[in-house]
Specification:
7-stranded antiparallel sheet; 10% helix; mainly beta
C-alpha cells in the first residue's frame, strides 16, 4: 500500500513526534481526518495502532461519498469506545437515508421499525478498553463480512449486505473527546477466497 495522504476535514488533526493525533476542539463535531483509497472492489484489510484518553470515541469509516442513499456516503464503520466496540453496516443501517428519516417519524411503530432494522445491521461488543494503552487494531471487510481484532485476538464479526458495497474510496478517521493517537496505519486491497 502506498503512503496515505490524510487531510483534515475538521481542524485538530495532525502529527506530533511521528504519531497522528485527533482532538475534538468544537462542540459540533469531533476531529476528522480523511484519505482517498484505491480499493478496486471495496475489499480491504486495515491495521494500525490506536490509543485513546478517557471518554473518547474513535471511528474508522470506509465510505463512498458519491453514494446518494446514505448520509455523508457512510458504508462501513468500526467504532471504539471505552466500554464498547461497534461494527456498523451504515449503508443498510444507521446512515441509510430512508431509515434515518423513518427514525424521526411521529409514528411510534414506524420509528420502532427503523430502530429494529438499524439494530440488525450493527454489532455491539461490550468490553472494557484501557486508556493510555496502545491497541493493535485489525479491520477486515471482504464481501458482506466485517471482522475486527484487537491485539491479534478476534473480537467480532458482522455479516450484512451493505458491507459488500463495491466502492469504499473514502477513509475517514474521527475522534470525539479529548484525544486519540494513531500510528503504523496500513491498508491493503484484498481478493476474496474462491
Amino acid at each position: 500500500f502506498r503512503r496515505v495522504l490524510f487531510r483534515s476535514r475538521i481542524k485538530s488533526v495532525g502529527v506530533e513526534n511521528g504519531v497522528m493525533f485527533g482532538r475534538q476542539t468544537t462542540t459540533e463535531h469531533g476531529s476528522v481526518a480523511s484519505a482517498k483509497l484505491n480499493l478496486p472492489d471495496g475489499n480491504l484489510i486495515c491495521e494500525c495502532r490506536v490509543q485513546f484518553a478517557r471518554n473518547v470515541t474513535v471511528a474508522f469509516s470506509f465510505d463512498d461519498m458519491k453514494h446518494p442513499d446514505s448520509v455523508a456516503g457512510h458504508i462501513a464503520r468500526v467504532t471504539l469506545e471505552p466500554q464498547l466496540v461497534k461494527l456498523h453496516d451504515d449503508k443498510e443501517g444507521a446512515m441509510n437515508r430512508k431509515l434515518s428519516a423513518q427514525r424521526k417519524s411521529a409514528d411510534a411503530a414506524a420509528k420502532a421499525e427503523a430502530e429494529a432494522a438499524i439494530k440488525k445491521h450493527t454489532r455491539m461488543l461490550p468490553m472494557k478498553l484501557q486508556t493510555e494503552h496502545w491497541y493493535a487494531l485489525g479491520i477486515e471487510i471482504v464481501g458482506d463480512k466485517m471482522r475486527v481484532t484487537l491485539d491479534g485476538q478476534p473480537i467480532g464479526l458482522l455479516q450484512s449486505a451493505g458491507l459488500a458495497h463495491p466502492k469504499k474510496p473514502d477513509l475517514k478517521i474521527s475522534v470525539s473527546g479529548q484525544q486519540a493517537l494513531l500510528d503504523d496505519l496500513s491498508i491493503w486491497s484484498v481478493k476474496p477466497m474462491p
